[in-house]
Amino acid sequence: MDDTTLRVTATPSSGGGLVIAVEGYLDEEGGSTLAREAGAIPAVDHRRICIDLAAVTLFTCSGARRLIAVLDELNTLGCRVDLQGVHHPLQRLLDLAA
What is the 3-state secondary structure (H, E, C) of 16-41? Predict the structure, then answer.
């Protein structure tokens, strides 16, 4: 994987939900990748979604905005979304946006 790319992997969880693992740079391009991958998830099949951000190595404001938009869209679709592994600086930004 290139150092400046974002990889998104979706796998079913043992509890019947879905885990979306995010790895790499969450910048504008990475945020677009995350939005595209999250939009491809059949929300009817996965009402519980965990987004694991532990492997995000860098984020920008535009990437964080895209993440917030993805969270809003999934919530609008009726999904329960939990964030996991959020690094402190990104968590502070998400708290401010809430």
Answer: CCEEEEEEEEECHHHHHHHHHHHHCC
Q: What is the pTM of this model?
A: 0.88
**Domains in the chain, number:** 1
54-90 in b/e form (b: 16+ CB < 10 A) is eebeebeeebbebbeebbeebeebebebebeebeeeb
Residue 14's CATH number:
3.30.750.24
Q: Is residue 1 a part of any domain in this protein?
A: no
Looking at residue 43, its pLDDT comes to 58
Tokens of 45: 């099949």
User: What domain range includes position 10?
Assistant: 6-97
Q: In this structure, what token pair is assigned to residue 38? A: 């999250």
The answer to whether 6 touches 23, Cβ cutoff 8 Å, is yes
